[in-house]
Specification:
With 424 residues, this protein is of the alpha+beta class. The protein contains 14 helices and 24 strands. Helix content is 31%, strand content 27%. It starts with a strand and ends with a helix. Bound molecules: adenosine monophosphate and glycine (GLY).
């Protein structure tokens, strides 16, 4: 069978790599893909991004099922279009994707269904937003309502920063429509974890836990990024916490959507903040897998992932049991010069070490130009190491990192430090 993965990041490379391992899968198309998916003979890049043209392609090529990676095509309704045309696709409908595409929708939804999250209010007028911030004080969090490619959240440690963020979004319109409304919410202290599940409309299948590192520099310093590294499992997600998150957050979300007439299908990612007492609250929902969380998660998943997706599309996820590599997988992102601002493109990348039983490198912002691999985006590669402990997985990953180079390469040296410091 032939499959299609929509997207071009490290997440999509990892999804396609995993799907292609099944003996019954002949080929996985990746649209548009990257320099890494271009080189793998079990994968083929397809230079299409328009969702109607993608549906034409899937029909023409007899694609058995499609997995959508990023939020933008989901929010634009790719799943609605594919379904209307009778094409099998895994992802949320445009309506369901509002859990990610509108922070105000997500917050109001959580309030209606008593799902634990930070207290908040939504504003479209700068004067009342400024007044709210004055009343509540800092730290406080300002979030653009719409999709803003990772630039829409300001964790303001001072009132001055909070006022600036409000002006940036509501007065100066710097984020366009995405910032025309803002959610202002209570600052939550604690440790974050990524809780990702697959949903078939009714049943929920949890994937392995993971944790991301959002800041650019070691020790969680510097600007926010899309994610500089991730590992799985995340020891903070104990079996008790796992059960609680399912009971208090995930299952009420799926049931609440159903109650409101929107069946949720697809990956559902709850970004959690876990306080010092171990209580989880929802920071955000994403209607897709995380990037870079997908890379270590897929590196640990055993078995035929295409069958899992098939069950998810058929509504029979209750028949699936996932099997995980017991090792820790730890992924280090190598980013381009000047990331997360405007990253420089076109830097020549050295040879990438071949995949082994304990290490694999997924591509993101890479491109083949005249037979040479060059940088083409902010996050360039994600190097994953697998080993019996977090520290050993760090050693394996960084050993590979040390064999890769390109001008301006930036990465964190401390991916996994929280887990490494925790008793396992
Ligand atoms: P979001 O896109 O909503 O997950 O926000 C991006 C990042 O901002 C999160 O991963 C957190 O690190 C931080 N953040 C978001 N909301 C809050 C909050 N209420 N309190 C503290 N940090 C937050
Ligand atoms: N790594 C965070 C995200 O995918 O949103």
């Amino acid at each position: 069978m032939k499959l299609l993965v929509v997207g071009s990041g490290g997440r999509e490379h990892a999804l396609a790599w995993k799907l292609a391992q099944a003996p019954r899968v002949q080929l996985v198309y990746v649209a548009p893909g990257n320099g890494g998916t271009a080189q793998d003979e079990r994968l083929a890049n397809v230079d299409i991004t328009d969702i109607h043209e993608l549906a034409d392609f899937a029909e023409r090529e007899g694609v058995a099922l499609t997995v959508v990676g990023p939020e933008a095509p989901l929010a634009a309704g790719i799943v609605n279009v594919f379904r209307q045309r009778g094409l099998k696709v895994f992802g949320p409908s445009k309506e369901a994707a509002q859990l990610e595409s509108s922070k105000d929708f997500a917050k109001a939804f959580m309030k209606r269904h008593n799902i634990p999250t930070a207290a908040y209010e939504t504003f479209s007028d700068a004067t009342s937003a400024h007044a709210y911030v004055e009343k509540h004080g800092a730290p406080i969090v300002i979030k653009a309502d719409g999709l803003a490619a990772g630039k829409g959240v300001v964790v303001a440690m001072s009132l001055e920063e909070a006022h600036q963020a409000i002006d940036m979004m509501l007065a100066d319109n710097k984020l366009g429509d995405a910032g025309a409304r803002v959610v202002i919410e209570e600052f939550l202290a604690g440790e974050e974890a990524s809780f990702i599940v697959m949903v078939d409309g009714k049943h929920v299948l949890a994937l392995a836990s993971s944790q991301d590192h959002k800041r650019l520099h070691d020790g969680d310093q510097g600007p926010n990024t899309g994610g500089m590294g991730a590992y799985s499992p995340a020891p903070i997600v104990t079996p008790q916490l796992h059960a609680r998150v399912m009971r208090e957050i995930i299952l009420p979300t799926v049931a609440g959507m159903e109650k409101e007439g929107i069946r949720y299908t697809g990956f559902l990612y709850a970004g959690l903040m876990i306080d010092a007492q171990g209580n989880p609250k929802t920071l955000e929902f994403n209607c897709r897998m995380g990037d870079p969380e997908t890379q270590p998660i897929m590196a640990r998943l055993k078995g035929d992932f295409s069958k899992v997706v098939e069950h998810a599309i058929a509504g029979t996820l209750n028949q699936v049991e996932l099997e995980w590599d017991r090792r820790t997988a730890l992924g280090v992102v190598l980013a381009a010069h000047n990331y997360p601002d405007t990253p420089r493109k076109g830097d020549r990348i050295s040879e990438i070490p071949a995949e082994t039983a304990d290490s694999v490198t997924f591509h993101a912002g890479t491109q083949m130009v005249d037979g040479k691999l060059v940088t083409s985006g902010g996050r360039v590669l994600c190097v994953v190491g697998l080993a019996d402990s977090v520290r050993s997985a760090q050693n394996v990953a960084y050993e590979t990192v040390n064999r890769i180079s390109f001008d301006g390469m930036q990465y964190r040296n401390d991916i996994g430090y929280r887990a490494a410091g925790r008793k396992q």
